[in-house]
């Protein structure tokens, strides 16, 4: 017959709640720990009341709803505690069947309807303004909704160990030297890399599935559709049907292969590969040390047995008054450069290269 009051900016996610958490030293709620709570509007679904230091007892009411399918921090907590993960949302922003009678409603429409029904049943306490940062899509401006989905990952620790040793042994030199510490810290704390993206453009994931089979259990990795079909027929017979994974690779995964994939690899006997790989130096901005440089090093060692370059020369960035990189500000570049001729730019580039080579020597 008791109630726990919860503050939330996304009430519709209560359909994905799997637990209620309080701080272990919060005396207001300690008596409830270990009990079960009924989630409103879910036909009596019960979830456990737990305690965890993750909860800030001074924020809101001190009672935290755990929705691991739609919040990053809740997801980490659920993984730690072995809690289930519920996804209540479709990719078009509507609620799925987990939401019961709210299934099919747009997330914001569901939010309004749910709040109205909570008020009608006397379960809504109050509504007040709250300032927070809301992530939005760069292109369309839509509010981004966190959700858990199936993705492809690369195990990174074995790759990172080899990339770390390359710097330790002096095989790879990073200039300025201070960036070696940043490089080492990132690789020493690396996480598995999600390489799949739900986009239109990019290299397709080279995986094919069998029609009528569980795609999590039965799949084929191949270089082409013809090769995939040949492998499928060898295992399932000539009448088998296949379809390719609709996702594409993370652009940084493709970019990580660039030093050798552009030179005829995997045919290491190609003249371009033998002549130009590995190269001497890479020059790039320090902001993509992790995104590109470290990953090129890891992929180069993994697939060719050697680092793709011996020196990495990292330059600074030109930013505007809003701290935006000027590579996004084409008009600003025109203002800074004026209208230089090709010969003028060539002289500037030649002069810069001479200075870089002198520094390396």
TrEMBL record:
Residue intervals of the Aminoacyl-tRNA synthetase class Ia domain: 121-323
Any one Gene Ontology cellular component term annotated for this protein: cytosol
Gene3D superfamilies: HUPs, Valyl/Leucyl/Isoleucyl-tRNA synthetase, editing domain
SUPFAM superfamilies: Nucleotidylyl transferase, ValRS/IleRS/LeuRS editing domain
EC number annotated for this UniProt entry: 6.1.1.9
Ranges where the Leucyl-tRNA synthetase editing domain occurs: 33-93
Coiled coil: none
Pfam families xref list: tRNA-synt_1, tRNA-synt_1_2
Identification of the protein by name: valine--tRNA ligase
Origin species: Castanea mollissima (Chinese chestnut)
